[in-house]
Amino acid sequence: MVKTSINMFSVYVGAFVAAYISSVLYFPVEVGGTAIVGRIVPLLILMLVIVNNIKKKYIVHKYTLVLILTMFIGGGSAFTSMNSILFYLNFVLLSLATYLSSTLLFERYGELFFYRVIKHIVIFSVFSSALGVFEYYNYNTTLQLWFFRGSPYYLSKGQVSSLYSNPNIFGIMTAISIQLTFMTYKSKCLSKSLMFLFTFVLFVGVLYSGARMAQALAVLVLLYNMFDRLALSPFKMVFISYVALISMSIGFGYLLPFIDLNFIDVIWGVSKNIFLENVFFGVGMGNLQDLIPSSSSLIHWSQGPNNFVWGFLAECGLIFFMMFSYLILKPFLGANKHSDLYVNLAFLMSVMLISQFSEHFIIYVSPYVMIFFLILAVASKPVRFGSFYGSYK
């Protein structure tokens, strides 16, 4: 019996890592311009987990409210076009599969499951980082590999994307993996020598990505782990970070004298205007990238919002933005500030939120969504129920 449990644990961890990798690699299987393979694999894992745990009554109705909120986020305006429907379904299916299956597995295996998963994500990220350096010096060779999506535009800018969709995503996910490395080391799942080696390789990858936001995040993570932790509760840490993200997004005009935003400020301004014209329900998930060039004479190509706040507000509206904010903050409310796990989760979530100052993960960053909902699942402190309509035990 014990041997079977250990084997299934390895299967679950391997399946999660496979799902993460499938969401990163370039699979030319698309519907309406959106990749679907990265969503199918997590769904299969969810089915595997639920079927294997039905007899043990690992019931998920504790998370009904969260699931309803997730399904409704963006749903009010999702059906304005086929493009919007596809983006909405992609996000909902990926987030639900990740959240539900990781919740059930964390309930069964505890912190061991979480740390084992992020350890393998770190190993993959280190490999991707090393491959990014190889891409920088052997660009034409890497373009011949089917899973790369290089671009001469990025080459001229001195940026590389490695296995990810573009240099900014490669840099941000690699910077986040630096924090995952420290967390894995502190959980004793990684030796000290490997921790230093992995951190060095990941930091080099961030530098070669050329993404300024990613480089700032990497420095923030290193400084945070070099000095004593902030005397903040997990909730306060996430709340302050989220407020900072919103404040910087709204007041981006004050940052213009200090940062060269390279037309991003124009994109944010257009996104803001589109939101003000569609305050409550937005224009529909995935539709903003086609509206931006038609709303500005300075931009002539399809362009994402490059900011989570204005992108989400413009596409999903104020009502769903408030619901999603609740989804982010609620798991950390009342979390134990003396628990290393919750402090680490809170800082990781804070780093991920701040990274969205120049990105919009809802639309096209599948690996980001997977880690995001994995954090929420672990932070939700799941408990076991006796039956679907039963009471707390």
Helix content range of the residues, please? 55-70%
Regarding quaternary structure, what we see is: single chain
Element order: H for helix, E for strand = HEEHHHHHHHHHHHHHHHH
Radius of gyration (CA) equals: 20 Å
Strand content: under 5%
Unreliable residue runs: 1-5, 57-61, 383-393
Give your account of this protein's structure.
With 393 residues, the chain is an all-alpha fold. The protein has a domain at 111-217. 66% of the residues lie in helices and 1% in strands. The chain is built from 17 helices and 2 strands. A two-stranded antiparallel sheet has the order 1-2. A hairpin with a 2-residue loop joins β1 and β2. α8 (167-186) packs antiparallel against α15 (340-354) and α12 (264-277) crosses α14 (308-329). The longest helix has 28 residues, at 82-109.
Question: Which helices and strands appear, and what pairs or packs with what?
Answer:
Layout: H1 2-24, E1 30-31, E2 34-35, H2 37-53, H3 64-72, H4 82-109, H5 111-137, H6 139-142, H7 152-156, H8 167-186, H9 192-209, H10 212-226, H11 234-250, H12 264-277, H13 288-294, H14 308-329, H15 340-354, H16 361-364, H17 366-379
Antiparallel strand pairs: 1-2
Helix pairs in contact: 1-2, 1-5, 2-4, 3-14, 4-5, 4-17, 5-8, 5-9, 8-9, 8-10, 8-15, 11-14, 11-15, 12-14, 15-17
Short synopsis of the structure:
The chain is built from 17 helices and two strands. The protein has helices at 2-24, 37-53, 64-72, 82-109, 111-137, 139-142, 152-156, 167-186, 192-209, 212-226, 234-250, 264-277, 288-294, 308-329, 340-354, 361-364, 366-379, and strands at residues 30-31, 34-35. Strand 1 (30-31) and strand 2 (34-35) form a beta hairpin.
